[in-house]
Amino acid sequence: MKKLITAGVALGLLSLPAxxxxxQQPGDVINSTLSPIAEWVNARAxxxxxxxxxxxxxxxxxxxxxxxxxxxQDLQTKLGELAQNQVQGADKRSQLQERxxxxxxxxxVIEGQLGAFERQVLALHEYFPAALKTRLSALMGRLPRDQRxxxxxxxxxxxxxxxxxxxxxxxxxxxxxxxxxxxxxxxVEREVWVMYLGLAQAFYADAxxxxxxxxxxxxxxxxxxxxxDRAADIARAISIARGQIKPAQFVNxxxxxxxxxxxxx
Length: 265
Fold this sequence. Notes:
6 helices, about 15% strand
């Protein structure tokens, strides 16, 4: 099982608790202030841990690609020079051939891992929001779905596709993305603005600030629930993210950490 724990906060979307109308004791004020801050810190720590894991896997794949392709290219060049110059170097040729076989065995090991990487990316893809799925549609189309399709694609191209997907996922997870979408709300297609806080959570609101909701990761398609009572705050936060309200302001929005269990297929 692969756990992808995501959460995000950006653009100053958390605010200090509103001052109550009645005077509060100092201890109550401190406790009510520290609680959301602690939750925010924990959420950011989980996001950072997940992002670091993505970066480590990406760097490992890139290093392996560079190493084996450079080795194979060097070997092919040396073998070509021997053939062109008709050098009688049986011993050297034997050594190079042995080296090539060792590299090919090493490449076979990497190819054996490629299938697991591809299956994991396909499993995680089910939990990506629609905005990210659209961005990745071309890249995901290059991933082979079975062994027959994989056999027609070189190992270097398969690795390059995985790295490209991870790059886009990492970029999306570290950004606040706002886009216009049509959503079915109460059985009616409505045009709304949706704000994605990376892969952690999303908020939507209509242009009038009357309809709003919250989205969280779920398999197949993110799960959105109506929160019309928070429409004004959500609409203001989206306007800040779009650059319509300057300078940025603190907005009190509900956040939650969603645990995603993406099984490898």
